[in-house]
Specification:
- This protein is an alpha/beta fold.
- 63% of the residues lie in helices and 10% in strands.
- The chain has 14 helices and eight strands.
- Strands 1-7-8-6-5-4 form a six-stranded mixed beta sheet, with helices on one face.
- β5 and β6 form a beta hairpin.
- α2 runs antiparallel to α3, α2 packs across α8 and α3 packs across α8.
- The chain starts with a strand and ends in a 7-residue tail after the last strand.
- 24% of the residues are buried.
């Protein structure tokens, strides 16, 4: 998971910030505060429309579901009960599709499709078994049964407060109806055989209008509060289960880990083939030539051995660098403080390193943190044009936090195909988070969050 501000490093990342407001232009400035304009906003009326439609839809859902489920349960003593119950569950799943579409249109609620049916056997019996075993089907049934009483309650509350609010706030416009057609002075507050109290004088009408205005201003918030329960019901019962969502995330993360491991292996193979292996081949050839010239021209043979000795040193340094790129020994032996200090010393700009860790995290998390900081410092060296940088690590409960900041030109972001995008995918594979805050002109601050996990847990 990654959060992004700005664009990518380097010339390919662009130089401009993200687009303006969410509507493709500058945010509109309202003259009225939110509380006064809320009764006239489109989302308020959409929420009210959702509540109004909920009652008839809930009646149909409850009636159909209760009838079909009761019929199927009653017929379970015969073979007919199983297919009837399967049809009821499948129908509830289909009605759930309509409910998600209604929530999307009127409430702006995006709910992912639940996991599809997976029949283990072909044919009608396989389909029936899949429907009956599906947790999504039973959650749809539960939604149909629970939605009915809530729809009745929310309909009564919403309609009552809407009618009362708008009736009272517009009372000066229509209070003449009472004396003209009802033979009374206005709305009656109290009445018995001796006394009757009507809202009929200017002061009482003004107070009535003020009360109606207060109710009208509160109506949008009451309606939205009611629809919050609808959101919870739709998201919790008609969407994918947490277990299914977690399985999908783990499958995706596993693919990222496999791809990353394959890319690392290809990089190591390429570095060995183009670097140390090529030098060792040249070294073997040089030593063979030196051996042949040893008797004929000892001075030339000595010179060739000296060159071969230099090649050996270079090959050893390349192998050390390659081993450090796989997993540095200093990280295993001395931990993140020493390892990151070594990385910072190789950076082209001065880097301040602060590691506030009382104990070491799990080795796997320690390695990911090391390579995250290493790659971020490489980005600073190549693209940031900074004069100083800072690396900080600390622990917050069961999370390892790290932050790399610089005073460079900014404009960094998790854009598709960039190095930061790949880094974000690696962190996401272990339930980590990458946050990039890099406005154009700088400074840049990249924060990563990783699970701590006790040492010894992979």
């Amino acid at each position: 998971m990654a959060m992004e501000y700005g664009q990518g490093y380097g010339p390919d990342g662009g130089s401009g910030p993200h687009g303006a407001g969410s509507w493709g232009g500058e945010e509109r400035r309202h003259q009225l505060p939110a509380g006064l304009r809320a009764p006239c906003e489109a989302r308020t009326w959409q929420a009210f429309g959702h509540v109004l439609l909920s009652l008839p839809i809930a009646v149909l859902l409850f009636t159909f579901t209760a009838t079909m489920v009761a019929l199927g349960a009653g017929l379970l003593v015969t073979f007919l009960g199983v297919p009837v119950l399967a049809v009821a569950l499948a129908s509830c799943r289909g009605l759930g599709v309509l409910e998600r579409a209604r929530a999307r249109a009127l409430l702006g609620l995006e709910v992912a499709e639940p996991e599809p049916l997976r029949a283990q056997k072909p044919g009608a019996m396989g389909w029936i078994a899949a429907v009956l075993k599906s947790g999504t089907s039973w959650r749809a049934v539960l939604y149909s049964l629970l939605f009915f009483p809530w729809a009745v309650f929310s309909f009564c509350v919403a309609v009552t407060v809407w009618v009362c609010g708008w009736s009272l706030v517009t009372y000066p416009l229509w209070f003449w109806v009472f004396p003209m057609y009802a033979g009374q002075g206005g709305i009656q507050l109290y009445g018995d055989d001796q006394h009757r109290i009507y809202l009929d004088n200017p002061f009482e009408i003004t107070v009535t209008t003020a009360v109606g205005l207060l109710i009208t201003l509160a109506v949008p918030w009451i309606t939205r509060a009611l629809t919050m329960v609808d959101r919870l019901l739709v998201a919790g019962l008609l969407g994918p289960s947490r277990l299914a969502t977690r399985v999908v995330e783990l499958e995706s993360d596993r693919g990222v880990v496999v791809d990353t491991a394959a890319a690392d292996l290809r990089r190591i193979e390429r570095d060995l083939h183009d670097g140390a292996q090529a030098r060792l081949v040249n070294l073997a050839m040089d030593l063979g030539l030196a051996k042949e010239k040893l008797r004929e021209d000892p001075q030339a043979a000595v010179h060739m051995v000296d060159e071969a000795h230099g090649e050996v040193k270079t090959a050893l340094q390349e192998l050390r660098d390659l081993a450090r790129g796989i997993h540095p020994a200093v990280l295993t032996d001395r931990g993140l403080d020493a390892a990151l200090s070594a990385v910072a010393a190789r950076c082209t700009v001065p880097v301040r390193v602060e590691v506030d860790l009382a104990e070491r995290p799990a080795p796997a998390i320690e390695g990911i943190a090391y390579f995250t900081v290493s790659e971020l410092l490489q980005n600073i060296s190549k693209h940031a044009q900074a004069t100083r940088a800072a690396v900080e690590l600390w622990r917050v409960e069961n999370r390892l936090m790290l932050q790399v900041a610089d005073n460079g030109v900014g404009g960094a972001g998790v854009s598709s195909g960039s190095g930061l995008a790949g880094l974000a995918e690696r962190l996401d594979a272990v339930d980590g988070v990458l946050v990039v805050d890099s406005p154009v002109g700088g400074p840049t601050r990249v924060t990563a969050e990783l699970p701590w996990r006790d040492e010894g847990v992979g």
